[in-house]
UniProtKB/TrEMBL annotation:
Matching Gene3D superfamilies: 3.40.50.12500
Pfam family, one: Asp_Glu_race
One Gene Ontology molecular-function label: amino-acid racemase activity
InterPro entries: Asp/Glu/hydantoin_racemase, Hydantoin_racemase-like, Iso_Racemase_Enz_sf
Protein family membership: Belongs to the HyuE racemase family.
Organism superkingdom: Bacteria
Protein name (Swiss-Prot/TrEMBL): Hydantoin racemase
């Protein structure tokens, strides 16, 4: 059976399990014989990546020998942080496909020249987010990022407030910026992304399912298999 490793670049085991659950549910919805999905949580870093320093630590932690050893046993790997920390170094060490939730969701949002925005909770990562979009060659389609206010960690502890605050950011992307699709920018925001997908008529793209779709395509697995 195909084995997928989902690496959480922050130290929250609850976030790891949430992302693994989303991935398992997605694969089960599109495949009669879905792959197994297991999670790996980095041993050092922050419980949520909120600034450039956290992102740098996460890049190193993702390439920790213990994480790499687990990844070498997998058939495919998902890096579950929106900045895709450490992904290039990890790819260089592995012979299997490695997909990041950030690049996967942004590419999906910008398909066919579609105008897209990003709604998230981490304003200190604004420059990094915009830079990553440009590196993917999608700067011309990017309408900008909209951020919630207040402490991202505190907001994440209250799911109803997180969803409500992100809904406001999604609305601003659509109504004020002219986005035709909106990416929810962050692994810890995965459950909120699912809920928001049902609240808006335009596509609201969850990063974990987007990474699952990208990995299936890269691995050339038949979604009906």
């Amino acid at each position: 059976m195909t084995h997928i490793l989902l690496i959480n670049p922050n130290t929250s085991t609850a976030t790891t399990q949430m992302m693994v659950d989303i991935a398992r549910t997605y694969f089960a919805s599109v495949m009669t014989s879905p792959p197994t999905v297991v999670g790996a949580t980095v041993m050092r870093g922050a419980p949520m990546i909120v600034d450039e320093q956290d992102l740098a630590v996460a890049a190193d932690a993702v390439n920790d020998p213990q994480i790499v050893a687990l990844a070498q046993q997998a058939d495919g790997v998902i890096v579950g942080a929106f900045g895709d920390p450490g992904i290039e170094a990890l790819r260089a060490r592995l012979d299997v496909p490695v997909v990041g939730i950030g690049s996967a969701s942004v590419r999906e949002a910008g398909e066919g020249g579609r105008r897209f925005g990003i709604a998230t909770t981490t304003p200190q990562l604004a420059d990094s987010i915009a830079s990553n979009v440009r590196k993917l060659g999608l700067g011309a389609s990017f309408t900008g990022a909209r951020f919630t206010t207040g402490d991202p960690l505190a907001l994440g502890d209250v799911p109803s407030q997180l969803e409500s605050s992100l809904a406001g950011a999604v609305d601003a992307c659509i109504r004020l910026d002219g986005a035709q699709a909106v990416v929810i920018g962050g692994g810890p925001l995965g459950e909120a992304a699912q809920a928001l997908g049902e609240r808006f008529s335009l596509p609201v793209i969850g990063p974990v399912p987007a990474a699952c779709r990208a990995l299936l395509q890269t691995m050339r697995l038949d979604e009906a298999a």
